[in-house]
Amino acid sequence: MNAKNLKIAVQRVVLIATLAVSLFFTACNSEKDPNPYGLDLITTTEEYLTSIEADSANFLIDLEDHIPGILLDIRYAGTDNFTETKIYSAPKAYLRKEAADSLLKLQEELKKEGLGIKVFDAYRPYSATLYFYEVYPDTTFVAAPWKGSIHNRGCAIDLTIVNLVTGEELAMPTPFDEFSERASYDYIPEDSLILANRNKLLNVMERFGFEKYDYEWWHYNFSNRKGMELLNISFEDLEKLKEE
Ligand SMILES: [Zn+2]
Fold first, then answer.
1. So what's the pLDDT on residue 29?
2. pLDDT in tens, 29-41
3. How far, in Å, is the centroid of ligand 1 from the Cα of 45?
4. What is the distance between the terminal CA atoms of the chain, rounded to a whole angstrom?
5. Three-state secondary-structure class, residue 6
6. Ligand 1 centre from 109 Cα, in Å?
7. Where residue 243 falls among pLDDT bands split at 50, 70, 90?
8. What CATH class has 39-243?
């Protein structure tokens, strides 16, 4: 092989290696694309802080800090959820400012009866919505990732009512995240106490500005959510912002 041929051979090897490496990274990136549907998504703390500067209503409030006596049972922070996987790194519940303020008033109202709220989930980073649909691709019970969830907008909450003294949950038609017809508001429980409990939740939520989701007794959307964008900010990043 003369010097010219050797140079051509080396160039070919370099070209093939470059192509292989770039194909490998393209494949890796497409697997982990955080926004495969090209949604308007807030993904960095800088973008999130800019949105708060533009409108303070965008602020995500830590419900545990904001609402005395609130109970959390954040199922996606453990393995006791339909994915059987720990999705969140921390058991945190955040909602946008106005929704959090409404929930504070709601808790004060329930307290008069010796009752309070227990939260299963509130703000949910968009990455979790993508994963949920992979595990359970049924858009009745899991948000369509090409639209995003109202949880991703910090305007939805999954919750129940508890006795404040004992901490026990009021009896409801199903456990949280039971994806069945019995979870629907169309289902009429035989037990009148269960029906009354579900109605108590519905009535108090509607009085404080939340709307029910027909297929899940535990899921409520805050009515005034206009302009609230989809977010993919992690709980760690929200915690870091609180420390700054
Ligand atoms: Zn929900």
1. 47
2. 445 799 999 999 9
3. 24
4. 64
5. helix
6. 23
7. confident
8. alpha beta
| Number of Cβ atoms within 10 Å of the Cβ of 233 | 23
- Show Cβ contacts of residue 1 under 8 Å, excluding neighbours closer than 6 positions: 9
What's the gap in Å between 94 CA and the centre of ligand 1?
13
Residue extents of the structural domains in the chain: 1-32, 39-243
Amino acid at 92: K
Task: Compute the distance from residue 14 Cα to the ligand 1 centre, in Å.
Answer: 52
- The alpha carbon of 77 is separated from its chain's Cα centroid by a whole number of angstroms, namely 11
How many A from CA of 141 to the centre of ligand 1? 8
DSSP alpha helices (H): ranges in the chain? Answer: 3-31, 45-54, 63-66, 97-111, 126-135, 192-207, 235-243
Q: At what angle do helices 45-54 and 235-243 cross, to 10 degrees?
A: 60
Contact 93, 110 (CB under 8 A): no
Give the Cα separation of 39 and 51 in Å (integer). 16
Q: Please, what sign has the CA dihedral across residues 51, 55, 56, 57? A: negative
Give the Å distance between the CA of 137 and the centre of ligand 1.
15
User: pLDDT tens, 13-23?
Assistant: 655 565 555 55
Interval 136-145: pLDDT, tens: 999 999 999 9
pTM above 0.85, yes or no: yes
CB 217 within 8 A of CB 172: yes
